[in-house]
Amino acid sequence: MNAVLARKKDQAPQFEPTAYHIVETPEGAALDIQKFNLWYGEAQALFDIDMKIQKGAVTALIGPSGCGKSTLLRCLNRMNDLVDDLTITGKIMVGGEDIYRTGIDVIALRKRMGMVFQKPNPFAMSIYDNVVYPLRVDGVTNRKVLDETCERALKGSALWDEAKDRLKESALGLSGGQQQRLCIARAIASDPEVLLMDEPCSALDPIATAKIEELIDELKGHYTIVIVTHNMQQAARVSQNTAFMYLGRLIEYGNTETIFQNPKQKRTSDYVTGRFG
Amino acid sequence: MSIATMGKDKAEAQAATKGRAVRKYTADISAVGEPWLWALGGALAIGIILIAGFLFMIFWNGVATFWPQPIHVVTLANGQMVAGEPTRESTYRVGPELLASLSPEARAEVEGNGGYADRVLYRTGNYDLYNEDFRWVSRFDVASVEAPSGFYLFERQEWGRFVGKIAGLTLDEDRKDISSLSYDEIRRHQAEARKRWDAIRYIEKSEIGRVNHYIEQERLKLRKAELRYGVDSPLYASAAAEAEPRIAELQREFAALADRAATLKAEDARYRIMLEEIGGRTKETNLSQIVRLYPANDVSGPQKIGIYLSRWGEFLGSEPREANTEGGVLPAIFGTVVMTLIMVVIVAPFGVITALYLREYATQGKLVAAVRIAVNNLAGVPSIVYGVFGVGFFAYTMGASIDQLFYPERLPSPTFGTGGILWAALTLALLTVPVVIVASEEALAAVPRSMREGSLACGASKWQTIRYVVLPRALPGVMTGLILAMARGAGEVAPLMLIGVVKLAPELPIDAFAPFIHLERSFMHLGFHIFDVGFQSRNSEAGKPMVFVTTLLLLFLIVAMNSSAIYIRNRLKRKFAVGQF
Ligand SMILES: Nc1ncnc2c1ncn2[C@@H]1O[C@H](COP(=O)(O)OP(=O)(O)O)[C@@H](O)[C@H]1O
Ligand SMILES: [Mg+2]
């Protein structure tokens, strides 16, 4: 067994240690990932990730398909709990607490982290009910609070003008781009600290994509945003910091401008200039 | 290349392919034939023809049953006369004794036919006079057949049909001259008599039934007090003293009602009708006993339609009479629908909860796989086995305990301790729950993962996710399972025969007395009604038409229940249709 693993390791590509550029965390990191490893069954998907995520900034995760971006993102709000046979070592600190500590309240944690998925996934309810869903499951029944939250969240996701006259209509009647903004509204309705976005624009047309990017720009500062993207231009446009991942490893992490213009590692420069990936 | 030449080329090319195609098909039929394909297609065609033929037969027989037939008067060779509706014909082999007794011409005719003869079945009615409802008449026996006017078909409250003439009518002790009365006038008098009879029935069944119910309540209350406190206790004595005036009051009410009924009956008895069969024998009866009458050979087309519709109305809207072979099936419709609905109400939560546990909560392993296999196999257990289980477990075990605990005052007559609509519904629920479980599990599995994740990411718990996102989304699929269960359950008869279905239920399971829904009562069911009418009645030939009509009705009922469920499901589906990108 060990011998097999060892041989595999010999054949595997060699990696230098992660190249770090300075990432400002003046108020302390919003998320602090420490020596994080993850296995799906026998297969290791994340290797020794060490990463501090800046509060109030947009951090982009880039890298070729299958490099573990989604896996890492889904660890941040423990969405990976749904997967059977998952092994984890290391820590992810949020507000001074390890979210993988036994006995942590996962539901409370998820309420502090909004998540937006690759494909818009509104529920088969009215627009209004979709937006206030996080509050409803939290037990909020006060009509005034719900109304206010709905308006605030929809304004926050730049959907208010389009949706304010049809709040009672089914969310499934919205266009794809509107649905995705509705999902963002839903994610920010409970006023989370962190917003996790997994390729939020990959199912959208360019105009809807532009709108979402604009929105991300407005939301930064209010929320710490971690966004997975395949699109290098998008990463460059919306993020302050960028992490480049490859084969489950964090290759290079730093200020977006530096990563794109002055990367330390050859793999990073190859990827960002489009030579592979 | 110009357009013109292009067109020409094309035409040539087409001609060429055409030529080739024709040559190919004429050349090699065996290759094209593909015998296996033909066999498969043939099998399908046979299946479709069988199903279509079956449906057509039921539909046609069911629809035609109530159409008024003419009355033929047959004069036999020996001068005897037979009057009746021709029902069907057949060819039979004439036995040697009968053959020997025939006249020489008739014998020659039969022998010329190779020993076979045709015969016609006449529905003669008049069971009280003839001791049979039907009579076969052989062709060679017939001297003449005609359809004379003035012959009536009477449908009577008792004794079934009467075929014959009206010999006399007495209205309010006043003998009427028949010849001066038109059919419409006779019918008007008959309708009035019917109304009186309905009034008597109402008093006897509903009002006296109500009084009886309250008297029984009082008796049970007293018995309860006796069981609780003992016969000698002062508490029982005071209860008895309290009940006494109430019972006396009820009995006075009872007597008053009985008086009223008697007066009405005396009134009713002053309206009589004298019927005369073809042989001249007469039968006198109260006019109110005639449910329907019409001069079969004189009625016009519209009148026939009227009779046809009124028969359907009676069939759908009234109680059976004459050992279920006549009258309506309302209690059976009611029983079938109520039982099916109760079954759905039981099976839906039970099946869905099981499916939820299996799919969402149980750790998927060997045990769950074994449970799944067991559930699937449950669907293959013969239904009569469920009936046996239902009687043994529900009625005799659970029901008996319930009686001991809650209805001790009614013992030794069982309340829940015998077959009833609740136990029948539970038994059928057990029978159909595998269908619901399997369908629900599939529906749950088909809910996209992204929906669950979306909900969990909002901070919803697993149960909230299931409750608000997964279940609504799976509902159409669950409904499909329920529809299948309903279709199976509504048509199942065998287990019901053991657990609660009766030939004739005295009371409906839902009525005006608290608690309004009486789940312990036995009930009637269309499926059992078919069996009973067709094969268990005094005269199964007379029941035969009813078998077809009832079958048609049962099919219609199942289709109707399923269509409404499908309609609801499709509305739900539309709600979950994914929007456009
Ligand atoms: N639920 C899972 N079970 C097993 N392997 C998984 C699962 N999800 C992802 N993986 C594997 O983990 C690796 C990383 O996947 P992912 O994080 O989705 O990549 P990315 O989002 O960067 O394209 C891939 O090799 C993928 O096959
Ligand atoms: Mg991904």
Q: Characterize the overall form of chain A.
A: globular
Helix count of chain A equals 12
User: Could you say which structural class the secondary elements and strand pairing of chain B correspond to?
Assistant: alpha+beta
Can you write the helix and strand succession of chain A as a string? Answer: HEEEEHEEHEHHHHHEHEHEEHH
- Overall radius of gyration of chain A: 19 Å
Number of strands of chain A: 11
**Quaternary structure of the protein:** heterodimer
Q: How would a crystallographer describe the biggest sheet of chain A?
A: 7 strands, mixed
The main sheet of chain B comes to: 6 strands, antiparallel
CATH class of the largest domain in chain B: Mainly Alpha
Tell me what portion of residues of chain B adopts beta-strand conformation.
5-15%
Q: Enumerate how many helices of chain B there are, as a single number.
A: 18
Instruction: Let me know the number of strands of chain B.
Output: 13
CATH fold-level topology of the largest domain in chain B: MetI-like fold
Most extensive interface between two protein chains, with residue counts: A-B, 34 and 25 residues
Attached small molecules: adenosine-5'-diphosphate, magnesium ion
Q: What average pLDDT do the residues of chain A reach?
A: 86
List keywords for this structure.
heterodimer, A: 277 residues, alpha/beta, 12 helices, B: 581 residues, alpha+beta, SH3 type barrels, MetI-like fold, 3 domains, 6-stranded antiparallel β-sheet, 18 helices, 13 strands, disordered N terminus, binds adenosine-5'-diphosphate
